[in-house]
Amino acid sequence: MPKNKLTTPDWILKGEKKPKEKKEGKTFKIRKCPECNSFDVVVVTEKDAVGLWRCGKCGWEGKNVVWEELSEEEFMKYLDEKGEEVA
């Protein structure tokens, strides 16, 4: 019995990044430092610092902040650990 040849996925042929698998239900995106994985990352508002991020924990500065997608349950756990009040 002959085997079927594998085909190259469309996203590779188009030169795109591999699509991320979607989490079920509502999701939330949060920023994360690429150096220390801290969630204490804020945008820099100084003059000439367009698109620059800074980590409050390790002091990292850069433009390649990591975005992490959390499910609603994971996000609620994150808020609890952070000490935020949840209504």
Question: How would you state the average pLDDT, rounded?
Answer: 83
Radius of gyration: 19 Å
Topology as H/E string?
A: HEEEEEH
Class of secondary structure makeup: alpha+beta
Reported for the largest beta sheet, the result is: 3 strands, antiparallel
| Total E-strand runs | 5
Task: Provide the spatial order of strands within the biggest beta sheet.
Answer: 2-3-4
Overall morphology:
flat
Low-pLDDT regions: none
**Number of helical regions:** 2
- The fraction of residues assigned to DSSP E strands is 15-25%
Distance between the termini: 61 Å
Residue share in helix: 10-25%
Walk me through this protein's architecture.
The protein has a domain of 58 residues. With 87 residues, the chain is an alpha+beta fold. The protein is flat and about 60 Å long. The mean pLDDT is 83. Strands 2-3-4 form a 3-stranded antiparallel β-sheet, with no helix packed on it. The chain has 2 helices and 5 strands, in the order αβββββα. A hairpin with a 5-residue loop joins strand 3 and strand 4.
